[in-house]
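Students often ask what a 'structure token' actually looks like in practice. Rather than answer in the abstract, let us consider UDP-N-acetylmuramoylalanine--D-glutamate ligase, a protein of 444 residues. Its sequence is given first.
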Amino acid sequence: MRLVVLGGGESGVGTAILGKKKGYDVLVSDFGKIKENYKEVLTINGIAWEDEKHTEELILNADVVMKSPGIPEKAPIVKKLIEKGIPVISEIEFAIQFTDATTIGITGSNGKTTTTLLTYHLLKQGGLNVGLAGNIGKSFAWQVAENKHDIYVLELSSFQLDGIINYKPHIAILTNISPDHLDRYNYDYSLYINSKFRITKNQTEADYLIYDNEDEAILNWLKNNKIKANKVPFSLTGKPEKDGGYIEENNINSTIKNELFTMPINELALEGKHNIKNAMAATAVAQLLNIRKQTIRESLTNFQGVEHRLEKVLKIQGVQYINDSKATNVNSVFYALDSMTTPTVWIVGGVDKGNDYDELMPLVREKVKAIVCLGVDNTKIINAFNNVVDVMVETTSMSEAVQLAQRLAEKGDSVLLSPACASFDLFENYEDRGNQFKQAVHNL
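Now compare that with the structural description of the same chain:
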């Protein structure tokens, strides 16, 4: 069996290692450059690779192709594979056939990284042999190749879900859905919504779907489509009929199989309404896997949070600098601005993914005193907010953006990097953008 892996990053190299171990004839092909450390791993493992090209005669003879999530369906080589009827799948789909581990799949437009890390933290503290993979940490396929864990918590993007055929998580979490990556879905929001719901398409009556019961897109889809999994809704405003999470008298409550877990909201390590929801989702998983209530309570109290997600960097001359580089869409920025309690200088911009800034208007009017546009093309942001804030400036470097923000901020203000856009115009990725922000703040 010939396995071709498109993309020589973490998921690609992990898939290649697992494929080789399972007796496949493997080629890794990357249209860009493969990083030196990955080239070394491939070479040591005797796996053929090429970079800065896709050699068609070496690719179009594959029995199966694993496509890295970053490669769009409309890439010429992918189109040719699909025309030839060669299956093009995701790393998750390839790896799952080689493990009996239970998986918890977590997706959503926002909050999935926090919820994934929090769920992992709860299960690990509960003494389970649990791995962390998907969009985060070490490749799932790589860990399966090393037979590491009984349970995996997987952060799954819509792109990874597009490449599944048979994969099903025992427990799925859908944190929320809001317009994102629409450039990859022909600017059709319904295609993106359907993509997210692929997480439950293979689930059975023995499985669970945990979801936000206040999310319009989720509720509409569930109204019009049947699912087999047991529904576990969570909400800040209502109480579920049976299982699910809710709030009562400033306590977070979660009922699973008639067992009630409860703890005061003010004891949660994470702040903000969206994080109460993330905590409800993670708690439901921990209850389903029989983690002790005391352990859940302690874990929710001592969780450290996620880098580049509303991360407090430094307070300088009474101004708080906050790194929210992971906010790559409008909905994430909504959460960030909603949680601000001081006048805010907002650093925004990057590669627009079809953003509609209208829903931010009330929050920007109320909380934002100045905007620093950080991107190659800021036209859309300027047109959206020109009449809403008094001061708008443009820049194409992070250090300059932070210096401008410092000049615009006064004691008692906050400077918030929450870009609402992808980072690829000026940075390698959102981590690089966040790290440059933190470095620039430390240089002030």
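One point worth highlighting: The chain has a mean pLDDT of 94. Ask yourself how you might have guessed this from the sequence alone, and why that guess would often be unreliable.
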